[in-house]
Specification:
little secondary structure; two-stranded antiparallel ribbon
Length: 75
C-alpha cells in the first residue's frame, strides 16, 4: 500500500526493520515516519480523541503529526 518510489525521497526502500514489541509486529524502512509506516500497513486509526474517544487518522505525513500518540518501550 505504498506509493511508487520518487527520486530524492527520504525513505530507503532497500532496507527494512521490524518492531519488537508486544503489539502486532510492524515493518518500516529507514526514513519512514511513524505515520507513513503505519499508513502503509493499512492502519487508519492512529489515535482517539480524549473527550469522546472518536477515531483520529492522519493530519500529515510529516514528523510532527499531532494525531498520533505512541509509547516507546524501554528496556
Amino acid at each position: 500500500m505504498r506509493l511508487p518510489p520518487v527520486p530524492g525521497e527520504w525513505i530507503d526502500r532497500s532496507a527494512r526493520w521490524n518492531s519488537a514489541s508486544k503489539a502486532p509486529p510492524r515493518a518500516a524502512s529507514p526514513g519512514d515516519t511513524i505515520s507513513s509506516a503505519l499508513w502503509a500497513q493499512g492502519l487508519r486509526t492512529l489515535g482517539r480523541s480524549f473527550k469522546y474517544h472518536r477515531p483520529r487518522g492522519l493530519l500529515s505525513f510529516a514528523n510532527h503529526d499531532a494525531n498520533v500518540i505512541v509509547q516507546q518501550a524501554t528496556g
